[in-house]
Amino acid sequence: MDVSVILDNLPFLLEGFKTTLELTVLTLCGGLFFGAPLAFARSAQAALPRYFSLAIIETIRGTPILMLIFWIYFLLPRLVGVAVPAYAAGLIALIVFNTAYSAEIVRAGIQSVELSNIDAARAGGLSWFQTARYIIMPQVLSNMTPALLSQGVMVYKTTSLIYVIGVVDFFRAATIIDNREFKSVEIFTFVALVYFIPCAVISRISRKAEMKRAYGFQVGRGV
Predict the structure, then answer these.
(1) Alpha carbon distances (Å) from 122 to 117, 132, 133, 220
(2) Residue 61: helix, strand or coil by DSSP?
(3) Dihedral Cα 204, 207, 213, 215, nearest 10 deg
(4) Chain segment 104-116, per-residue pLDDT in tens
(5) Are 203 and 153 a contacting pair, CB within 8 Å?
(6) Which residues contact 213 (CB under 8 A, 6 or more apart)?
(7) Sign of CA dihedral 64, 67, 73, 78
(8) Angle value at C-alpha 59, between 57 and 62, nearest 5 degrees
(9) In order of start, what are the domains of the chain with their CATH numbers?
(10) pLDDT tens digits for 129-171?
């Protein structure tokens, strides 16, 4: 194993890794921002918003992420009449894809709040805003944490797919180096470790958070 190829190209790899982390954070934030309204619409009692949001969520979830990337990169410029940079197209595709999954995570978090807690808060004189702030949202965020961590792992790995439209993320940077150095084993072993180690750590944290939440729920129920 010739690790010098990694050390010699480390600055370029770090720039690519920075782009990957940036895309991961923006995708997660964007997915939650657009997914939350879909989640509330999906939980509505009225049929129109419920089925409309369901159609959007299922359409996105049923579309391969690579297809979304290609559609936005090649089709969107035709629709808006302006060229869309590869980075922007990739980010939009990732956010759209993540929105559907984030909506389901938020919806599950909302539904996990017991109505008795809300009724008790209202009976205690809290307004709807105070109930949402002090009773509903803390429970929703706590219940969402394990799923959000798992979603972060998925997004972190999925960002590598935008290399197909030329965005120089971590995976694309490694590919460029390999095309020049012809050190595939060394380079892609390093790439695999960079993807695997954070994902393994976060997945373990997610499992522990889920177990802690499940234990707390059982204790709260008197099990």
Answers:
(1) 9, 10, 13, 20
(2) helix
(3) -110
(4) 988 888 787 777 7
(5) yes
(6) 142, 143, 145, 146
(7) negative
(8) 105
(9) 4-220 (1.10.3720.10)
(10) 777 677 777 777 778 888 888 899 999 999 999 999 989 999 9
C-beta of residue 200 within 8 angstroms of C-beta of residue 137: no
pTM check: above 0.70 = yes
Q: Which of 97, 87, 89 is nearest to 31 (CA)?
A: 97
Rounded Cα gap, residues 189 and 19, in angstroms = 20
Output the furthest CA–CA distance in the chain (Å, rounded): 70
Which of 220, 203, 209 lies closest to 152 in space, CA to CA? 203
DSSP H helices, 112-183, are 115-123, 128-131, 137-158, 170-181
